Amino acid sequence: MEMQTARTDIAARAIEIINQLKSAEGPLLPILHGLQEEFGYVPPETLPLVANALNLSRAEVHGVFTFYHDYRSHPAGRHVLKICRAEACQSMGGDALAARAVELLGVNWHETSADGAVTLEPIYCLGLCACAPAAMLDGEVIGRLDEEQLQEIAMEVRL
Prior knowledge:
Elements: H1 2-21, H2 28-39, H3 47-54, H4 58-67, E1 79-84, H5 87-105, E2 111-112, E3 118-123, E4 135-137, E5 140-142, H6 147-157
Parallel strand pairs: 1-3
Antiparallel strand pairs: 1-4, 2-3, 4-5
């Protein structure tokens, strides 16, 4: 019964957000952003509500939702580590650091650790190409990321 109440609350709040934003020009992205801001992710059960409100097919909404990497279908961890996967960072050793991050954190891309401590996500350019490889931890950019910094980050997010 408690789970049903939580789902009803999510749907009710989602409908409020959708109604606030559906008259905006090109409302789909603002609505998805609003849902993610409110819940920390876009609950899958809200996508049909969005489709219905905007007179779009569920496939259209799902296609936009899955196209953009920043939208989540489940809550993120307490910390979010994004590692740049763009060419400049790759050329400066980013591939090895990315593989090491997966190893150190024990999660794959787009996953959250079992303890909810950290979510690992790829990002495709932070605009720090001159300071490659780059990463972002909880919204703070990190340039010239190296193995030592990565190990410190892995320890920090586990606290």
